[in-house]
Amino acid sequence: MTEPTVDRESRLWRAIVWTLRMSVAALCVGNAAATLSFGSKVHSLLASPTDVHGLGWTDASASLVDMVAGWSLIAAAVLVLFRPCWPVLVPVVLWELALALATTWLGGDAGSEVSLLGHMARMAAPIGLMLIDPWPKNLGLSSRRVEAAIWLLRIGIAATFIGHGYESLQLKPSFVDLLLNSSRNILSWRMTQDTAECILYVIGIIDVSVGILILGFRWRTIAFYMAFWGLVTAFSRWTAVGWSGLGTIYPKLLIRTAHAGVPLAVGLYWCLAVRARRYALSDNSVAADGEPDPTEPDPPEPNPAQADPSRIEK
Amino acid sequence: MRIARLAPARFRQSQSVQQSMPVQPIAKRVIAGTAFLLFVLGALNPAFLRAQTTPESKTTPKAEASLEGTQPAQWRLIWKDKPATQATISWTTAKHGRQHRVHLSEGDDGKAKIVKCQRNGQFTKDDGEPELYFHHTRLTGLKPSTKYRVVLESDKNRSQEMYFITAPTDRRSFQLLFGGDSRSGRKQRKQMNRMMGSMLNEQPSILALVHGGDYVANGDNLNQFSAWMSDHELTTTKGGRLLPILPARGNHDISGLYNEVFDFPDGDLNYYATTVSPLMRMVTLNTNISLAGDQADWLDAELAHSRPKYRWLLTQYHRPAYPAVKAPGGAKISWVPLFEKYNVDMVCEADGHAIKRTVPIRNDRVDPTGVVYIGEGGLGVGQRKPKADRWYLQSPGMSGQGHHLQLLSFDEEKLVYRVILLGGKVFDKYVMHARGKKSNVRRARAKVLGTAAGN
Predict the structure, then answer these.
(1) Per the count of CB atoms within 10 A, which of A252, B156, B304, B415 is most buried?
(2) A176, A196 in Cβ contact below 8 A?
(3) Is-cis flag, bond preceding A300, omega within 30?
């Protein structure tokens, strides 16, 4: 039996795809800028001496790797906007994974032990894009593939929020400073360190909670909250340094757009699911008393093809 | 009144220029593939293959001094806030021992008095690491600019006789060494330490080593810290003069071992200020904790207090505000405005594994009245190529690479800064005139603008 293919012209579906495309493109540009301007953790791993768990490469060889990776990421950013495809996206995922592993391996940063968790959303975005926007185009899009992609995105963003929540509960100093400097720059409020640490603790609890909730429930509110908070935390890098600091801070901001893009894509998909269910109910002339409840725990994953059954390619 | 302080209780625990979870199968495959790729890349690298055959990479670094029983080893002299009258002498033993004390004599002929260790304990260790014990003796009531002979004793086992000289309380000229990042490249670290010992021998006006942090790669690894402490013995001169150290915490110096090595209270936040001389105050900061919170408030008060009193006001910390290699650290936002507000003379930074001296900076641009940032760390660690195209490293600033330390010479009128490479070559020299005199400001402006125009 042939799996139905998805109508790729549906507005919501296009919004999901473009959310992921933009997130991955921003991730690539941010990583490229960081790598070319400041060097990457992969460089540190390659160039560190073997007696401190590095690979003992020369600085020149490691810099060459950075340079090749940086320019490749810029090319990947452009290609992702025009036509995402696995030969472009797989290296992006691998680079992000290498960054996470190198950070954990080298240590030396607060929270480096949970670096892999923090990077999960950034790895999930390109993998999710690979699955829901397949290349070559004639591959088609099965409901199973979409289901896998959405689960992957959920796991990715959950891991990132739990990782960051854990760091917040540990009162990571750089997070404390984000709060202190942002409140000073935006609100002209000189917050005390004690206050910032209390707020950070609450943020940590919320982050871990929503990280768990998005795995257990299909609540659009949670997904959209996570998208909102992902955007806030990405922009906090900027608000902490002020307008003049944008020149050096923009790579961090761009890299973290995936923290907003991934839950936004999940939230939009659940909107699509609710709409699909509504169509299904009306088509079957079932007496529906009111709006379908999107907070209902785990109904079967809808087939995205049902988003607009009239448009399914036969 | 000096306002140097330790942690709050609630946390207790020129200008001449030289040069320039559950995962999908596909994700599993990706992770496994990347791990394999990294493994292959690393394993195929010739340097890595070579390293597998060298004994040092296979074994835990061994201590330089013999650590047996209660024989004192790994001695270090630590300066905190009042080095004219106070110092902490510390050592390590392999056994706990019962009685630990210092025989302290003033001058060459003074009668020895015995000072008992105030703090003894076992270094925090992981499974498989040896049991080692620290002993800290806090010496107080010392006389300024005075030679003190010391013999360390643990259960009747004595060290050789050594000596140290306290900081001055008069306005004599003096020198300091600055360096950072001795966390890897043990061979080079030893060479740098021997060079420091030689320099101390040849230039008695050197008072101390200001260390910008990253002593070891894994700050929770006792073996690595033990090796560092043993190697630090090499800074002692052949005549037995000890080189005091003013430590700053680096990003690799995680865990409580740092406090055990340098006699900070458990949970201390590791920022403090040192009156090296009536001419000079050194403020040591910690980039591993919040920079913008209590530490910034303390820094504000400290600089406001110190600036009018001292001819030379310097700060040191690990992660740079104006880096030669990496991205700017949080110091740029939280501390640089204070440095500029209080006209700090020079800022010593580490972490980048390169050599750098910035142009004088104020409001993020070249300004003859600005602050000069030096350092980046070369006490053994492998060197990186600096990003020489950054605006603040352009002439009259500079950048480079090579194992190195900085020699800072202070007098009433000027601060002479030199970068000394391993082997003794002077790589960079810079002369800074004391702030406050209009003629000096004019001179600095002419030099900076002249060089800029020349470019």
Answers:
(1) B415
(2) yes
(3) no
Query: Nearest Cβ partner of B34 from A94, A242, A244?
Result: A94
Verify whether the Cβ–Cβ distance B292 to A181 is below 8 Å: yes
Rounded mean pLDDT of B42-59?
39
Q: Are A133 and A21 in contact (CB under 8 A)?
A: yes
Q: Per-residue pLDDT tens for B320-337?
A: 999 999 999 999 999 999
Residue A47 in contact with partner chain B when CB distance is under 8 A: yes
B122 membership: H or E segment, kind and range: strand B119-122
Q: What is the pTM of this model?
A: 0.84
Q: Do A56 and B37 touch (CB under 8 A)?
A: no
* Tokens coding B282: 């050194």
* Rounded CA separation B216/B214 (Å): 5
- Are B315 and B302 in contact, with CB atoms under 8 Å apart? no
In this predicted model, what pLDDT tens digit does every residue of A110-141 receive, in sequence order? 788 899 999 999 999 999 999 998 888 777 77
* A127 and chain B in contact, CB less than 8 A: yes
Report the alpha-carbon distance of residue B357 to residue B322 in Å, rounded: 10
Q: Is the pLDDT of residue B451 over 80?
A: no
ipTM over 0.85: no
**Interface touch B217/A109, C-beta < 8 Å:** no
| Residue B439 identity (one-letter amino acid) | S
- B187, closest residue in chain A (CA to CA): A51
The pLDDT value given to residue A10: 83
Average pLDDT score over chain A: 86
